Structures
1.
Amino acid sequence: MELGREVLDQQVIDARGVPMGKVDGVILELRPGEPARVAGLIMGGTTLLWRIHAGLARWVERRLGGEGHVTRIPWHRVLKIGVDVKVDVEAQASPASHWERWVRDRIIGRIPGA
Amino acid sequence: MSKLLEIALGLVTGIGGFLEAGSLATSAQAGAEFGYQLIWAIALGAICIAFLVEMGGRLAAVSHHPLPDAMRERFGIRFFLVPLVAVALVSFLVLASEIGGVCLALQFTTGVAFRWWALPVSAALWLFLWKGTFGLVEQGASLLGLVTLSFVVGALKLHPALHQVGAALLPSLPTHDPAKYWFMAVSILGASVSPYLFYFYSAGAVEDDWDEGYLGINRVVAGLGMTFGGAVAVAVLVCAALVLHPRGIQVDRYEQVPFLLTEPLGRWGFRLFAASLAVACFGAALEIALLLAYLVAQGFGWRWGENLRPRHAARFALVYTAALLLAGLVIVTGLDPLKLTIFSMALTALSLPVTVMPLLVLMNDPDYLGDRTNGWLSNAAVLCVSVVAAVVALVTIPLQIFGS
Amino acid sequence: MSTAREVRLERLLGKLVVDAYGLPFGRIEDVIAEPHGDEYLVTHILIGPNSRLAQLLASAHELPTLRALGLGRRPRIRLVPWSWFDLTDPDRPQLRRSVADDGKA
């Protein structure tokens, strides 16, 4: 499996079939004396920023004091990789839906007819 | 829905949806200035957009990925951002032009200056998207768009020499003012080959759940739809060629444009002109606002869909809301909508290689298209037109800005 | 006993790899993992051309029209075993051995 081509930037679908975001990063675990393993997926926060401009990402992380609202999905929760990546996690319960909920509660939800 | 009905609806979308502020303005200007000479540019633009729209539909039907989603996956975030920003910027300017078009139509009918209509028009557009479904937007706007057929009626009533119109389908060199001629040719191409058209069509194919069974319909709708749509733009050009050109009236002020229909159709001509302008631009504005939301939401994997209630796709709704508000504000400033339109069209042509190339690469990737990748003709046609249009735009835009 | 370390795939992609002599070897195109029981273990790294021009020609190669015009060039991609890499500094990946052009040590 080519991790960059088949996993990175793919659409993530949660346990309920709801779009959860895109795979912004893949975590590889290096173990001394053993082959490295694919540990999991990571979405959100500054992950994407690191790929666009490392210097900017470093600056933002210093201001935020961390990575921001990231969602880590351990590899054993990844169910299927195909047209998209199906995971055994609920979007609603994870940090992935943080900004969606924020916009819904603070902006869109306040407009009548939403 | 039966396939025949789908084709009919697709054709209606092509006819009703092709004409908008850009094609109206550029066709009118071209006809007024150069008579029939630039009809070839409309034809070339229509052919090119037919290819691109077919590709967008095929991509969605075979890969089940809308274009922005596929672009992010295939190219990674860094190389996705470049076409994303290009398409978003250019489309935003076109959105402002469309809002300007609706406002001008309202100014023609009520006498109230266009800038005061900007925010009410933005609000009306927003309400349509907020409350409507994808079907409503797609079909409603295009059915109403059939009023633009008034231009065809008007053109026929002016009794154009059809053999002359036919002859103009072949490219010709200008008899005067070559810089302006080529600038107009490029603007016409930019008006026809607008990225928002094929990006939106691709998203629409996914919203409508197309699969490989739709490939035939896709080809018919793209080909015939854009051909008929192009014919309406040619009708506008013919009207301008027969009404304005003989009088030496150049379309550089928007008040001159309604004459196109008042001469062949009298008082009804004026009303039909205003209605055509308003409806065509309104429909295009809806599509572009939605497109901007698709671009961002699909590129970043958010929930999206016009059929969803706004609270279930909050960030998606936020994008089109913000876009409509900002575009409306551009028109409130009083910026001349006609100048904005012509400029956006030229800019579109200039950005074509950047906005078209990602689609072209995807269309040749068997991972996405299986054995339905592009034939040599699709590739060659689109590549040629994009590169040539951009090169000519690069040369003529500065000439136009500094020469006039 | 040293602990496991985390390395991000997306930050590896595109990074320039140097060989044991410090000479540029290529850029990381992708990382290959194979299933091994319940897990996926990293086995190889795909190395592509390191110059921007070569990358551009590789992209041009994807379009049949440009290929027909002779404008694209098939990029040289090498499959290098993961164990040959020294990733103590993920921003500067190094090959532990010198590698001949055909990918063999």
2.
Amino acid sequence: MAVSSTSLPLDTPEFVFRTKQRGLWGQAWQRLLRNKLAVVAGAVLTTILVLSILTATVPAIESHPPHEQQYTVVQSGPTADFPLGTDNLGRDLWARVWEGMRISLKIGLGTQTLVLIFGLAVGAGAALGGRFTDNLLMRFTDLMFAFPDLLAIIIMRAVLTERDWPLIGSGDPQIPGFPGALVQVILAIAFVGWVTLARLVRGQMLSLRETDYVRAAESMGASRRRIVFSHMLPNTLGPVIVAITFGIPLAIFAEAVLGFIGFSLPPPTASLGTLVSDGYVYYRVNAWMIAVPSVAIAALMLCFTFLGDGLRDALDPRTRK
Amino acid sequence: MAGYIIRRLLSMIPLLLAVATLTFFLMHAVPGGPFDISEKTPPAAKKNLEAKYNLDGPVVDWPWHDSQYRAFMVSLGHGDLGLSIRRNEPVTDILRAGLPTTVQLGTCAFLFALVVGITLGIVSAVNQNGPLDYLGVFIATVGVSVPSFVMAVFLILIFVLQFGWFDVLGWEMWNYRKMVLPTVSLGLLPAAFFARITRAAMLEVLRQDYIRTARAKGMHETRVVLRHAARNALIPVLTVAGPILAGLITGSFIIERTFQIAGIGTTFVDAVGLRDYGLIMGTTLLYAFVIAVMNLIVDITYGIADPRIRY
């Protein structure tokens, strides 16, 4: 049958063959790019990320360091020197908001890294590790669900303070850029967050275990390791990425709440939550002090939510409306 | 049904005991005791104080005579949550004083969320892909992703500083100047959440055959939407309503703090800062209890609303 493809009488147009073949992730990427809101959110977030790094490294963008106090320009509105005004101690709000952004991004990404590691490990362990592990995890998640999230975060934050443990102790940061108090906040928020992801991964893995292609791989004699890592894990990644993206704004929100009630990073560090908390004291004197960090929090959370919506639609076409 | 409710109520007991145990050990893992805050307390006085509040002796011991854990659990079994270390009042009294305010605030915000969210969702779904729909979806997205206290800040800046319509401090039932802002800022997030769910469910229901039948027989559109479609579309809203109400009652502490409202939330935040063990554990248990009861109520009403579900 060597004749078939070359001597076909029908002249198939060339462009049919020119269509680029895309894999699962390539298709998802194309779907994401078609979602304008998600693209805009992604662009804004990239800008925020770049600017937050630049403000810390290039002195020209951040003319005043975030902790520098100038008592001659207390509570000023926006001026040429201070684009967003100053706070009650004459600190540059522009610089302080960028410091807050950096901290919020670190907290968002840091907690979700921990959540990813623990959630994947425990979820997969529960799904694949037999009945006892599964029961243990499920009872523990029940317990965690009975606990109000924010209360658990506040209590964990209190438990982790004033320890001389590695990584979270006071003094010089043991991880560059992550001082002890920041790691404490990240740990406290991640402590609550991983449970949801573990449940998600467990559910995904349990249903994947029954699918035909996993059965097929089993019947062909694939090793357990191969089945888990090259068949099941990649297929759980879609929902996991979506959950992680939605987890980032939740973590930023949790930090803002902690800062607002005074359990976040100690002064003079400016996290977005502590900035709102400071601004709240002076909102009648200087509305800029509270409006600026509030807008920053809202912008960060909105962007991550839009991006999460876009990713969800892109990675799971079945749920698309 | 009665058997199911009794089973569920009984299963709450081990859950609450587990919450109590977990809180107990977490609280005792917090570095420093409640009497370490003032450095001037003489050691002898501190010792006496610790004896009074059951804070002396081993935290946990086996066999567990004299351990703090045992003392805590035994008094818990008697419905006694102990004394608040800071205020020197029974914890139950403090909670009883703050609870009405928190429940009022939570209920008002819940009703606001229900009315606004469902209306927004129905209007969006009926005008699918029209300007009203886009407006509704936009409000819902903003509401879901802007934290309640940030919203409160914006509302204060606009309605208090610019227009002077409302007060910023306190809560008073039936006094609109003190009710509107806390209610709206707390209720906006669940309202947005309800709107999203209602819209999705309405879109689903509006495509059903019985809706087409109702329209085909010439029924008025308002009646079709409200009587035939909304009834079925609201079942998914009902499922999330319980956890949301529980979340409003337990999650109101930020709003309570913003508006200086003397409810349970303010009590809890202050208690953590002062390491007031008894009060923290009392509040957490109360919250866990509220969440458990709300979940139970939802499951029961769900069974009533959807006759296909049997327990």
